[in-house]
UniProtKB/TrEMBL annotation:
The keyword Transmembrane helix applies. Pfam families: DoxX. This is DoxX family protein. Signal peptide: none annotated. It is a multi-pass membrane protein. The chain crosses the membrane at residues 115-135, 141-164. It comes from Deinococcus ruber. InterPro entries: DoxX. One of its GO terms (cellular component) is membrane. Keywords: Membrane, Transmembrane, Transmembrane helix. The lineage of its organism: Bacteria, Thermotogati, Deinococcota, Deinococci, Deinococcales. It is found in: Membrane.
Length: 200
């Protein structure tokens, strides 16, 4: 004999955003600060990608595409030894079985990805998304054992993602986001207009 039991009620509550985070990440008065950070990060990505695109040896884009990536990844595999290796085993597996066999494709992906992220950040176009992919590239460089400017750029990219509402406010996002919308809030281009009822 079975008895039907009512499913337990599921309660949800919205946790209010602290004033300090609302001021830092959602207040347009800080838009000039986010503009400066955005331009700096965007310039770093654009210049890095442009250097690869215009490389005279063609090791990033061209006849020898993949050569630079292969050299970089093979160098990363040499950093997997010791008690505290610079490159962890799981990432070494990814490098050996996924990245290296597709080095030529990754070469184009990295080059154009860096350029696109840089341009988008400089223009303030889909700033949060661009900063996310920039941070993702920084994370991969760090996982491959390369420090350089990656820690600083990763932190700045994370902050730009958190401030996505205002980091592109002095940019194209100010006009584009209201029109296309954000998840859960469609923009003016996608809202269905309600037909007006004719009054007699």
């Amino acid at each position: 004999m079975t008895t039907d039991r009512a499913a337990p009620a599921v309660y949800s509550a919205e946790i209010p955003e602290p004033n300090i985070t609302r001021f830092l990440f959602a207040d347009t008065r800080l838009a000039p600060l986010w503009l400066l950070l955005r331009l700096y990060v965007g310039y770093e990505w654009l210049s890095a990608g442009w250097d690869k695109f215009t490389n005279p040896a063609g090791v990033w884009v061209g006849d020898k595409a993949g050569a630079a990536v292969s050299g970089f990844l093979n160098g990363a595999l040499k950093k997997t030894s010791g008690d505290h290796p610079d490159v962890q085993g799981y990432y070494a597996w990814f490098v050996q079985h996924v990245a290296l066999p597709n080095a030529a494709f990754l070469s184009y992906l990295v080059t154009y990805g860096e350029i696109l992220v840089g341009v988008a950040l400089i223009l303030g176009l889909f700033t949060g998304i661009a900063a996310f992919f920039g941070g993702l590239m920084n994370a991969n460089y760090l996982l491959a054992g390369t420090v350089s400017t990656n820690p600083a750029l990763f932190v700045l990219a994370t902050l730009l993602v958190l401030a996505w509402r205002t980091s592109g406010y002095w940019g194209l996002d100010r006009w584009i986001l209201p029109r296309i919308g954000v998840p859960g809030a469609p923009g003016t281009l996608f809202r269905h207009s309600t037909p007006q009822t004719r009054q007699t």
